[in-house]
Protein backbone atom coordinates (compact mmCIF):
# COMPACT_ATOMS: atom_id res chain seq x y z
CA UNK A 1 0.00 0.00 0.00
CA UNK A 2 1.30 3.50 -0.89
CA UNK A 3 2.30 5.45 2.23
CA UNK A 4 1.37 8.91 0.97
CA UNK A 5 -2.21 9.91 0.29
CA UNK A 6 -3.59 10.53 -3.19
CA UNK A 7 -4.70 13.99 -1.99
CA UNK A 8 -1.14 14.92 -1.14
CA UNK A 9 -0.09 14.14 -4.71
CA UNK A 10 -2.42 16.95 -5.86
CA UNK A 11 -0.46 19.68 -4.07
CA UNK A 12 3.02 21.18 -4.17
CA UNK A 13 5.06 22.73 -1.35
CA UNK A 14 4.91 26.53 -1.04
CA UNK A 15 7.34 28.01 -3.62
CA UNK A 16 7.78 31.21 -1.61
CA UNK A 17 8.94 29.25 1.42
CA UNK A 18 11.23 27.25 -0.91
CA UNK A 19 12.90 30.46 -2.20
CA UNK A 20 13.36 31.83 1.31
CA UNK A 21 14.86 28.52 2.46
CA UNK A 22 17.21 28.35 -0.57
CA UNK A 23 18.42 31.93 0.05
CA UNK A 24 19.03 31.14 3.73
CA UNK A 25 20.98 27.98 2.81
CA UNK A 26 23.19 29.86 0.34
CA UNK A 27 23.84 32.57 2.95
CA UNK A 28 24.72 29.93 5.55
CA UNK A 29 27.15 28.45 3.03
CA UNK A 30 28.90 31.82 2.87
CA UNK A 31 27.36 33.19 -0.37
CA UNK A 32 26.50 36.89 -0.58
CA UNK A 33 22.73 36.66 -1.12
CA UNK A 34 20.04 39.33 -0.74
CA UNK A 35 16.64 37.77 -0.10
CA UNK A 36 13.66 39.58 -1.62
CA UNK A 37 11.46 36.52 -1.30
CA UNK A 38 10.01 36.73 2.19
CA UNK A 39 6.48 37.99 2.74
CA UNK A 40 7.06 39.59 6.10
CA UNK A 41 7.85 43.08 7.41
CA UNK A 42 11.42 43.58 8.60
CA UNK A 43 10.12 45.75 11.49
CA UNK A 44 10.10 44.43 15.04
CA UNK A 45 6.80 43.74 16.81
CA UNK A 46 5.85 46.96 18.69
CA UNK A 47 6.89 47.09 22.35
CA UNK A 48 3.37 47.46 23.79
CA UNK A 49 2.40 44.19 22.09
CA UNK A 50 5.46 42.36 23.39
CA UNK A 51 4.70 43.63 26.87
CA UNK A 52 1.13 42.36 26.70
CA UNK A 53 2.54 38.93 25.88
CA UNK A 54 5.06 39.05 28.72
CA UNK A 55 2.36 40.05 31.15
CA UNK A 56 0.15 37.19 29.84
CA UNK A 57 2.97 34.75 30.57
CA UNK A 58 3.61 36.22 34.02
CA UNK A 59 -0.04 36.05 34.97
CA UNK A 60 -0.34 32.40 33.98
CA UNK A 61 -2.36 32.80 30.79
CA UNK A 62 -0.50 29.78 29.51
CA UNK A 63 -3.21 27.11 29.32
CA UNK A 64 -5.50 25.82 26.58
CA UNK A 65 -8.09 28.40 25.58
CA UNK A 66 -11.50 28.23 23.93
CA UNK A 67 -11.02 26.52 20.56
CA UNK A 68 -11.52 29.52 18.30
CA UNK A 69 -10.34 32.32 20.54
CA UNK A 70 -10.57 33.96 23.96
CA UNK A 71 -13.63 36.21 24.46
CA UNK A 72 -11.42 39.31 24.89
CA UNK A 73 -9.84 38.80 21.47
CA UNK A 74 -13.16 38.03 19.78
CA UNK A 75 -14.54 41.27 21.22
CA UNK A 76 -11.45 43.21 20.03
CA UNK A 77 -12.01 41.74 16.56
CA UNK A 78 -15.69 42.76 16.54
CA UNK A 79 -14.62 46.28 17.56
CA UNK A 80 -12.01 46.34 14.81
CA UNK A 81 -14.52 45.31 12.13
CA UNK A 82 -16.93 48.00 13.32
CA UNK A 83 -14.24 50.69 13.55
CA UNK A 84 -12.35 50.03 10.31
CA UNK A 85 -14.91 48.43 8.03
CA UNK A 86 -18.35 49.44 9.32
CA UNK A 87 -19.23 45.73 9.72
CA UNK A 88 -21.27 44.55 12.70
CA UNK A 89 -20.37 41.09 13.95
CA UNK A 90 -20.98 39.38 17.28
CA UNK A 91 -18.31 37.21 18.98
CA UNK A 92 -20.15 34.04 17.90
CA UNK A 93 -19.51 35.09 14.30
CA UNK A 94 -15.73 35.29 14.86
CA UNK A 95 -13.05 32.63 14.54
CA UNK A 96 -9.41 33.00 15.62
CA UNK A 97 -6.78 30.63 14.22
CA UNK A 98 -3.06 30.02 14.01
CA UNK A 99 -2.54 32.64 11.30
CA UNK A 100 -4.80 33.73 8.50
CA UNK A 101 -3.45 30.69 6.71
CA UNK A 102 -5.15 28.28 9.11
CA UNK A 103 -8.37 30.28 8.96
CA UNK A 104 -8.49 30.03 5.16
CA UNK A 105 -7.62 26.34 5.35
CA UNK A 106 -10.31 25.63 7.97
CA UNK A 107 -12.93 27.41 5.88
CA UNK A 108 -12.08 25.46 2.73
CA UNK A 109 -11.87 22.14 4.60
CA UNK A 110 -15.20 22.82 6.26
CA UNK A 111 -17.08 23.58 3.06
CA UNK A 112 -15.67 21.93 -0.07
CA UNK A 113 -16.98 18.68 -1.53
CA UNK A 114 -15.19 16.83 -4.34
CA UNK A 115 -15.68 18.60 -7.65
CA UNK A 116 -16.80 21.91 -6.17
CA UNK A 117 -15.06 24.89 -7.66
CA UNK A 118 -13.30 27.91 -6.21
CA UNK A 119 -12.70 30.94 -8.43
CA UNK A 120 -9.24 32.39 -7.77
CA UNK A 121 -8.02 35.53 -9.56
CA UNK A 122 -4.44 35.24 -10.87
CA UNK A 123 -1.87 36.39 -9.97
CA UNK A 124 -2.80 34.72 -6.68
CA UNK A 125 -1.23 34.08 -3.30
CA UNK A 126 0.53 30.73 -3.75
CA UNK A 127 -1.44 28.87 -1.11
CA UNK A 128 -4.99 29.36 -2.45
CA UNK A 129 -4.99 26.76 -5.25
CA UNK A 130 -3.15 24.15 -3.21
CA UNK A 131 -5.40 24.60 -0.18
CA UNK A 132 -8.42 24.14 -2.44
CA UNK A 133 -6.87 20.95 -3.85
CA UNK A 134 -6.05 19.66 -0.36
CA UNK A 135 -9.67 20.24 0.62
CA UNK A 136 -10.81 18.19 -2.40
CA UNK A 137 -12.06 21.11 -4.49
CA UNK A 138 -11.10 22.39 -7.93
CA UNK A 139 -9.38 25.76 -8.37
CA UNK A 140 -10.71 27.77 -11.33
CA UNK A 141 -8.20 30.44 -12.27
CA UNK A 142 -9.45 33.76 -13.66
CA UNK A 143 -6.54 35.83 -14.93
CA UNK A 144 -5.94 39.56 -14.60
CA UNK A 145 -3.07 40.81 -16.75
CA UNK A 146 -0.57 43.60 -16.23
CA UNK A 147 -2.49 45.67 -18.80
CA UNK A 148 -5.52 45.41 -16.45
CA UNK A 149 -3.34 46.53 -13.53
CA UNK A 150 -3.63 42.92 -12.30
CA UNK A 151 -7.29 43.50 -11.39
CA UNK A 152 -9.97 41.01 -12.34
CA UNK A 153 -12.66 42.37 -14.67
CA UNK A 154 -16.33 41.70 -13.94
CA UNK A 155 -16.53 39.89 -17.31
CA UNK A 156 -13.72 37.51 -16.33
CA UNK A 157 -15.39 36.81 -12.98
CA UNK A 158 -18.75 36.18 -14.67
CA UNK A 159 -17.12 33.78 -17.15
CA UNK A 160 -15.40 31.80 -14.37
CA UNK A 161 -18.58 31.14 -12.36
CA UNK A 162 -20.42 27.85 -12.99
CA UNK A 163 -23.20 26.02 -11.11
CA UNK A 164 -20.38 24.19 -9.26
CA UNK A 165 -18.76 27.37 -7.91
CA UNK A 166 -18.77 27.42 -4.12
CA UNK A 167 -16.33 30.24 -3.35
CA UNK A 168 -14.80 33.30 -4.89
CA UNK A 169 -11.50 34.18 -3.20
CA UNK A 170 -10.71 37.88 -3.23
CA UNK A 171 -7.46 39.52 -2.06
CA UNK A 172 -6.84 43.27 -2.06
CA UNK A 173 -4.23 44.73 -1.71
CA UNK A 174 -2.82 41.65 -3.34
CA UNK A 175 0.04 39.34 -2.71
CA UNK A 176 1.92 39.15 -5.17
CA UNK A 177 1.06 42.30 -7.15
CA UNK A 178 0.21 44.89 -4.49
CA UNK A 179 -2.83 45.83 -6.60
CA UNK A 180 -5.73 47.27 -4.62
CA UNK A 181 -9.33 47.51 -5.86
CA UNK A 182 -11.02 50.85 -5.25
CA UNK A 183 -14.68 51.00 -4.30
CA UNK A 184 -15.96 51.20 -7.89
CA UNK A 185 -13.76 48.36 -9.08
CA UNK A 186 -14.89 46.19 -6.18
CA UNK A 187 -18.56 47.16 -6.67
CA UNK A 188 -18.32 45.97 -10.28
CA UNK A 189 -17.29 42.54 -8.95
CA UNK A 190 -19.86 42.42 -6.15
CA UNK A 191 -22.57 43.27 -8.72
CA UNK A 192 -21.62 40.07 -10.55
CA UNK A 193 -21.69 38.10 -7.29
CA UNK A 194 -25.16 39.43 -6.47
CA UNK A 195 -26.38 37.74 -9.66
CA UNK A 196 -25.03 34.36 -8.43
CA UNK A 197 -26.53 33.70 -5.00
CA UNK A 198 -24.93 30.25 -4.71
CA UNK A 199 -21.39 31.72 -4.63
CA UNK A 200 -19.76 32.47 -1.28
CA UNK A 201 -17.11 35.16 -0.88
CA UNK A 202 -13.85 34.57 0.97
CA UNK A 203 -12.11 37.92 1.21
CA UNK A 204 -8.50 37.89 2.37
CA UNK A 205 -7.93 41.38 3.79
CA UNK A 206 -4.51 40.62 5.26
CA UNK A 207 -2.94 43.74 3.70
CA UNK A 208 -5.80 46.11 4.60
CA UNK A 209 -3.60 48.54 6.51
CA UNK A 210 -0.79 48.56 3.97
CA UNK A 211 -2.50 51.00 1.60
CA UNK A 212 -0.63 53.93 0.07
CA UNK A 213 -1.05 57.31 -1.61
CA UNK A 214 -4.74 58.10 -2.06
CA UNK A 215 -5.85 54.46 -2.18
CA UNK A 216 -8.65 53.67 0.30
CA UNK A 217 -9.13 50.05 1.31
CA UNK A 218 -12.61 48.51 1.10
CA UNK A 219 -13.96 44.99 1.64
CA UNK A 220 -16.81 43.19 -0.19
CA UNK A 221 -19.41 43.03 2.61
CA UNK A 222 -18.93 46.76 3.23
CA UNK A 223 -19.27 47.70 -0.45
CA UNK A 224 -22.26 45.37 -0.98
CA UNK A 225 -24.18 44.68 2.24
CA UNK A 226 -26.28 42.20 0.24
CA UNK A 227 -23.26 39.85 0.38
CA UNK A 228 -22.84 40.02 4.17
CA UNK A 229 -24.61 36.69 4.82
CA UNK A 230 -22.39 34.77 2.42
CA UNK A 231 -19.04 36.42 3.05
CA UNK A 232 -16.16 35.27 5.21
CA UNK A 233 -14.02 38.33 5.98
CA UNK A 234 -10.48 37.15 6.78
CA UNK A 235 -7.76 39.25 8.37
CA UNK A 236 -4.85 38.93 10.78
CA UNK A 237 -2.14 40.66 12.74
CA UNK A 238 0.90 39.31 10.84
CA UNK A 239 1.46 42.09 8.33
CA UNK A 240 0.14 45.34 9.86
CA UNK A 241 1.60 44.70 13.32
CA UNK A 242 4.79 42.89 12.26
CA UNK A 243 3.62 39.74 14.06
CA UNK A 244 4.25 36.99 11.52
CA UNK A 245 5.82 34.65 14.07
CA UNK A 246 3.03 34.99 16.62
CA UNK A 247 0.62 33.17 14.30
CA UNK A 248 -2.72 34.86 14.85
CA UNK A 249 -5.31 35.29 12.10
CA UNK A 250 -9.06 35.68 12.29
CA UNK A 251 -12.28 35.83 10.32
CA UNK A 252 -15.89 36.80 10.74
CA UNK A 253 -18.87 35.37 8.93
CA UNK A 254 -22.14 33.48 9.34
CA UNK A 255 -22.37 31.46 12.57
CA UNK A 256 -22.95 28.17 10.78
CA UNK A 257 -19.68 28.53 8.89
CA UNK A 258 -17.78 29.70 11.98
CA UNK A 259 -19.07 26.68 13.94
CA UNK A 260 -17.94 24.33 11.16
CA UNK A 261 -14.48 25.90 11.18
CA UNK A 262 -14.37 25.50 14.96
CA UNK A 263 -15.07 21.77 14.55
CA UNK A 264 -12.04 21.37 12.25
CA UNK A 265 -9.81 23.36 14.59
CA UNK A 266 -10.98 21.36 17.61
CA UNK A 267 -9.72 18.18 15.93
CA UNK A 268 -6.44 19.64 14.69
CA UNK A 269 -4.66 22.42 16.61
CA UNK A 270 -7.20 22.87 19.47
CA UNK A 271 -6.61 26.61 19.87
CA UNK A 272 -4.19 29.32 18.77
CA UNK A 273 -1.34 30.06 21.20
CA UNK A 274 -2.74 31.64 24.40
CA UNK A 275 0.08 34.17 24.78
CA UNK A 276 -0.18 35.28 21.15
CA UNK A 277 -3.91 35.83 21.56
CA UNK A 278 -3.26 38.27 24.41
CA UNK A 279 -0.65 40.01 22.28
CA UNK A 280 -3.23 40.29 19.48
CA UNK A 281 -5.76 41.87 21.88
CA UNK A 282 -3.21 44.61 22.53
CA UNK A 283 -2.40 44.93 18.80
CA UNK A 284 -6.06 45.55 17.94
CA UNK A 285 -7.04 47.63 21.00
CA UNK A 286 -3.79 49.53 21.52
CA UNK A 287 -2.29 52.50 19.66
CA UNK A 288 -2.35 52.23 15.87
CA UNK A 289 -0.08 55.15 15.01
CA UNK A 290 2.99 53.10 14.02
CA UNK A 291 1.03 51.67 11.08
CA UNK A 292 1.15 55.10 9.42
CA UNK A 293 4.85 55.57 10.15
CA UNK A 294 5.66 52.08 8.84
CA UNK A 295 3.66 52.88 5.72
CA UNK A 296 5.78 55.97 5.06
CA UNK A 297 8.81 53.70 5.01
CA UNK A 298 7.06 51.19 2.74
CA UNK A 299 6.06 53.94 0.28
CA UNK A 300 9.64 55.18 0.09
CA UNK A 301 10.91 51.66 -0.56
CA UNK A 302 8.18 50.94 -3.11
CA UNK A 303 9.09 54.09 -5.04
CA UNK A 304 12.77 53.21 -4.95
CA UNK A 305 12.19 49.69 -6.28
CA UNK A 306 9.70 50.74 -8.95
CA UNK A 307 12.07 53.46 -10.18
CA UNK A 308 15.15 51.22 -10.30
CA UNK A 309 13.38 48.27 -11.93
CA UNK A 310 11.49 50.45 -14.43
CA UNK A 311 14.84 51.81 -15.61
CA UNK A 312 15.75 48.35 -16.96
CA UNK A 313 15.20 47.73 -20.68
CA UNK A 314 12.79 44.83 -21.12
CA UNK A 315 11.26 45.15 -17.62
CA UNK A 316 7.87 46.77 -16.90
CA UNK A 317 7.16 47.54 -13.26
CA UNK A 318 3.76 49.06 -12.37
CA UNK A 319 3.35 51.07 -9.14
CA UNK A 320 1.05 49.15 -6.78
CA UNK A 321 -1.49 50.62 -4.34
CA UNK A 322 -0.55 48.52 -1.32
CA UNK A 323 1.07 45.50 0.41
CA UNK A 324 4.87 45.30 0.13
CA UNK A 325 5.36 43.66 -3.24
CA UNK A 326 5.97 44.64 -6.84
CA UNK A 327 5.38 42.25 -9.69
CA UNK A 328 7.39 43.35 -12.73
CA UNK A 329 7.08 41.73 -16.14
CA UNK A 330 10.23 40.46 -17.88
CA UNK A 331 8.49 39.89 -21.23
CA UNK A 332 11.26 41.93 -22.92
CA UNK A 333 14.01 39.63 -21.60
CA UNK A 334 12.70 36.24 -22.71
CA UNK A 335 15.01 34.50 -25.17
CA UNK A 336 18.16 36.28 -23.99
CA UNK A 337 21.24 34.64 -22.47
CA UNK A 338 22.89 35.70 -19.21
CA UNK A 339 26.57 36.59 -18.79
CA UNK A 340 26.94 33.23 -17.01
CA UNK A 341 25.49 31.38 -20.03
CA UNK A 342 21.96 30.70 -18.74
CA UNK A 343 19.17 30.86 -21.33
CA UNK A 344 16.24 32.95 -20.05
CA UNK A 345 13.31 30.92 -21.37
CA UNK A 346 10.78 31.91 -18.70
CA UNK A 347 10.50 33.57 -15.29
CA UNK A 348 11.70 30.45 -13.48
CA UNK A 349 15.01 30.35 -15.40
CA UNK A 350 15.33 34.13 -14.91
CA UNK A 351 14.95 33.82 -11.11
CA UNK A 352 17.35 30.86 -10.98
CA UNK A 353 20.04 32.71 -12.97
CA UNK A 354 19.53 35.89 -10.94
CA UNK A 355 20.11 33.97 -7.71
CA UNK A 356 23.09 32.05 -9.07
CA UNK A 357 24.85 34.91 -10.86
CA UNK A 358 23.77 38.04 -8.97
CA UNK A 359 22.94 36.67 -5.52
CA UNK A 360 19.39 38.10 -5.46
CA UNK A 361 16.51 35.85 -4.42
CA UNK A 362 13.09 36.65 -5.93
CA UNK A 363 10.08 34.43 -6.53
CA UNK A 364 9.27 33.55 -10.15
CA UNK A 365 5.83 34.50 -11.49
CA UNK A 366 4.67 31.00 -12.51
CA UNK A 367 4.31 30.28 -8.78
CA UNK A 368 1.60 32.97 -8.64
CA UNK A 369 -0.13 31.96 -11.87
CA UNK A 370 0.99 34.78 -14.18
CA UNK A 371 4.15 34.79 -16.29
CA UNK A 372 6.63 36.10 -17.27
CA UNK A 373 6.98 38.09 -14.06
CA UNK A 374 8.76 37.97 -10.76
CA UNK A 375 7.80 39.10 -7.28
CA UNK A 376 9.96 41.40 -5.22
CA UNK A 377 9.17 41.86 -1.54
CA UNK A 378 10.39 45.30 -0.51
CA UNK A 379 9.91 44.62 3.20
CA UNK A 380 13.64 44.90 3.76
CA UNK A 381 16.13 47.72 4.41
CA UNK A 382 16.67 50.57 1.91
CA UNK A 383 20.34 49.63 1.71
CA UNK A 384 19.58 46.00 0.85
CA UNK A 385 16.94 47.09 -1.68
CA UNK A 386 19.28 49.53 -3.42
CA UNK A 387 22.03 46.93 -3.63
CA UNK A 388 19.60 44.24 -4.84
CA UNK A 389 18.08 46.49 -7.53
CA UNK A 390 21.56 47.55 -8.67
CA UNK A 391 22.48 43.88 -8.99
CA UNK A 392 19.29 43.18 -10.96
CA UNK A 393 20.12 46.13 -13.25
CA UNK A 394 23.66 44.82 -13.81
CA UNK A 395 22.43 41.26 -14.38
CA UNK A 396 19.88 42.44 -16.96
CA UNK A 397 22.41 44.73 -18.66
CA UNK A 398 24.60 41.65 -19.12
CA UNK A 399 21.90 39.71 -21.01
CA UNK A 400 22.58 39.21 -24.72
CA UNK A 401 20.40 38.12 -27.68
C1 LIG B 1 -2.46 37.13 0.89
C2 LIG B 1 -2.09 36.45 2.15
N1 LIG B 1 -3.05 35.87 2.86
C3 LIG B 1 -2.79 35.22 4.01
C4 LIG B 1 -1.50 35.14 4.49
C5 LIG B 1 -1.28 34.40 5.77
O1 LIG B 1 -0.81 35.16 6.79
P1 LIG B 1 -0.70 34.60 8.27
O2 LIG B 1 -0.93 33.12 8.23
O3 LIG B 1 0.67 34.95 8.73
O4 LIG B 1 -1.76 35.30 9.05
C6 LIG B 1 -0.46 35.72 3.78
C7 LIG B 1 0.94 35.58 4.24
O5 LIG B 1 1.89 35.69 3.50
C8 LIG B 1 -0.76 36.41 2.58
O6 LIG B 1 0.20 37.00 1.86
Question: How would you describe this structure in keywords?
Answer:
401 residues; alpha/beta; 7-stranded mixed β-sheet; 3-stranded antiparallel β-sheet; 13 helices; binds pyridoxal-5'-phosphate
Give the helix/strand layout.
Blueprint: H1 15-28, E1 34-35, H2 47-58, H3 71-85, E2 94-97, H4 99-111, E3 117-122, H5 127-134, E4 138-143, H6 154-160, E5 165-171, H7 183-194, E6 200-204, H8 220-223, E7 231-236, E8 249-252, H9 255-266, H10 274-285, H11 289-310, E9 325-326, H12 347-358, E10 360-361, E11 363-364, E12 374-377, H13 382-397
Helix pairs in contact: 2-10, 3-10, 4-5, 4-9, 6-7, 11-13
Descriptive overview:
With 401 residues, the protein is α/β, with parallel strands linked by helices. The protein is built from 13 helices and 12 strands. The chain has a 7-stranded mixed sheet with strand order 2-8-7-6-5-3-4, sandwiched between helices. Strands 9-12-11 form a 3-stranded antiparallel sheet. Strands 1-10 form a two-stranded parallel sheet. Strand 5, helix 7 and strand 6 form a beta-alpha-beta unit. Helix 4 packs across helix 9 and helix 11 packs parallel to helix 13. The longest helix is centred in the last third of the chain and has 22 residues. It is globular, with a radius of gyration of 21 Å. It starts with 14 loop residues before the first helix and ends with a helix. The mean pLDDT is 96. Pyridoxal-5'-phosphate binds next to helix 4.
Amino acid sequence: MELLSATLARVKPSPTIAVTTKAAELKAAGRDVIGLGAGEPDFDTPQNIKEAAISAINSGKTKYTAVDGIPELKQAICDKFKRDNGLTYTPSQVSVGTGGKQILYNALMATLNPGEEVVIPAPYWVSYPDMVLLAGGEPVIATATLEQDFKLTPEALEAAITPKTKWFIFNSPSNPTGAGYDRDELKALTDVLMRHPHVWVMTDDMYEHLAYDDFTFCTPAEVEPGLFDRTLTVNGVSKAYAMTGWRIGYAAGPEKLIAAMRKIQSQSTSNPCSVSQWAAVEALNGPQDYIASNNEIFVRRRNLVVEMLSAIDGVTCPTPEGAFYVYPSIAGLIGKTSAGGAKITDDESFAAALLEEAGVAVVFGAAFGLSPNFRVSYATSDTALKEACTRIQTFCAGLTD
